Structures are given as C-alpha cells and as structure tokens.
Amino acid sequence: MVRTTARRSATTRRRSATTSRRSAAGVAVAAALLLAGCTSGAPAPDASTVPATIEPQKAAAPEPVVPPTWPLTGVAGEPAARPALAVKVENTAVARPQSGLEQADVVWETIVEFEVSRLVAVFQSQVPEEIGPIRSVRPMDPDIVSPLNGLLTFSGGQPGILALVDASPVQVISHDAGAAGLYRKSGRSAPHNVYADPEALWAQADAQHQAAPAEQFAFARSAERATAVVAGTPATTLAFDLSGQSTPSWTWNGTVWERSEGSSPAMSAAGTRLSAVNVVSITAAHPGTPFGAQNGAVVPTYELVGSGEGVLATGGKTVPVTWRKDSRDAPMQLFTAEGAPAQLAPGNTWVELVPRETGSLAVS
Fold it and tell me: Where are the domains of the chain?
C-alpha cells in the first residue's frame, strides 16, 4: 500500500513538470509569433494618429500699454526732453498782471517778509513767450524746487540765501549775476520790471540739468478718477487767508478753479483769467529765519520737510489729505485718510502754502 502511494506521487510530479514545460513552450511560441508579426512588414502605427500631449500656454500676459504723460501735469502726450524751469515771480499789486503764469505747470504761492505773496512758477510742458516780473530768491525755495533737479531763475538775493540755493541740486540762473535771457522791460518801474525769455533760459541748461523732471504729485489717468472727484465733498469756493496782505480765493466754474486776488479776478498780462485744474492747500510751520529785510523785518521760511495737514481740491470737490516730504530733494506726497496716495486730475496745479500759525482756508 505504501509503495502504490509513492508511485502515484512520483507520477503526479512528472505530469506537473510536463505541464509546466508545455505552458512555458506555449508562451515562448506566442511571443515569437508576436515578434514575427511586428517585423514581417506589417504597418507600424501612424504617429500622426497618436494623440499629442498639449502643453498649457505658460507665457505671461502682455503688459498693458500706458500712454506717456507730461510729468508735472499728468496730461497725455510725448514729453519734451527739457528740464523743469522754476521762476521766482512777484505777486504784489504793482506787479500784476504777470506774464506767463497761465502756462505754468505748477505754481507755488508763499508768504515772504512784510506778509507779501511771492510765487514759484514751474514750466515744462508749455513755453510762454515771456515770464515776469521776476524777483529775488527766498529761503523756502530750495525745498520747493530741489526735487525737480532743473533750473531756478531769479533776480538776485542775500548772500546767505544764495548759499542755500547753491547747495541744492538746481542750476541757478540769476539776473544779478548777468545771466543771459533776463532783461528789464520798459513801461514798468524797477524793481518790478525784470522779465525773461524762457527759451533763452532753457538754452543755458548744463549737462547735469538736461533731463525732464520726475513726476512730483500722483495723477489719475482721467479727471473722473481723481481722488477728490471720487471721494470728495462738493465745494464752490476756496477762500485763503495767507496773511494780512494776501487773501486769494478760487471759485469752481464747472470746468476749472478760477483765481481771484481778494475781490478782483486774477488775470494774466495776455488777458486770460488765471485758473487751475487742481488747487492743493498745504499747512506748514512758517518760522522766521536769521535773514533780515528792510527796517529790521524778519525773512520767514516754511518747514516743508516732514508732514502735515492739507486739502486737495479737484473737479468742484475737496478732500482732506496728509502731506509728507521726506527730504529737501524728495517731492511732496499727498495721502488720503486711509493712507493711499491722493491722485490729482491731469492738468495744472496751484499749491497754496498756508502758514500754520496764522493762515487759514475756508471751504464753501
């Protein structure tokens, strides 16, 4: 019985081995036939019928094309390659009406000794035929014009004040120093008769003062997007009390702010009403300086490096702003209550420097 079982087990093992060999042989034969089919001239798959893997487009979207603008006005156009030209213009009753102010990009109004208003008119996008009357430089002027890195024209000044200007990055063009392009005009009495040919002034720019200025204030792309227009309060009149001798006002006419000197319309020598797209009120400390004037009068200045309160008027609306100027050579920046840059409408701007101690602005 034991031998029979052993013989059956051996037989079973032989049959299993035989079956395994036959299975392996069958697999080998099938593989050989498959290989033969692939190499016997049968057509290979057409690569054009095989679906291609399409890579997603990874190229960055093209940058939007932003049209060029004039740096001091934000007005669309191809800026001329000329520097900013700042001119110290008199603003007393005997000096009016002045020449060229209606074509200035920016005008800064300051209070000097004897509570008199004097202007710093900045030109770049337009070229007036004549500018004047031109008067002497003052201590606040370097802080106003240094960010422009352009030309500063005046009729003269005290040695100490001239030293302040010489230490700034601007190029000085002074009538008292005999600069070309400045002349005395007949029909007006001295010292209210110094005028300038702006083309002759620009022709004197040296190699370090050839470039157009950088943008000073921030501009919206259109008037409708200006900060005061979007978020401001409607207003019709801006009444400034800068000093006992200077009470300018601005009235919204539906298109621009029109300027008045006291109760009289402010006109140019060409018979044009002076106007502005933007009026910026800057309240700043107005201390005296060591410089003196006639009869012991103290020459004041403004503390413009730092920050303070202001008002931006555009499009018949006003909005409070904070101004900030980080250094003499840095432009003045305006910010909303939320800390965002305040944007002006494209166009010209008048900046009213309001003495913090004695000046005021009434909006109605």
Answer: 85-363
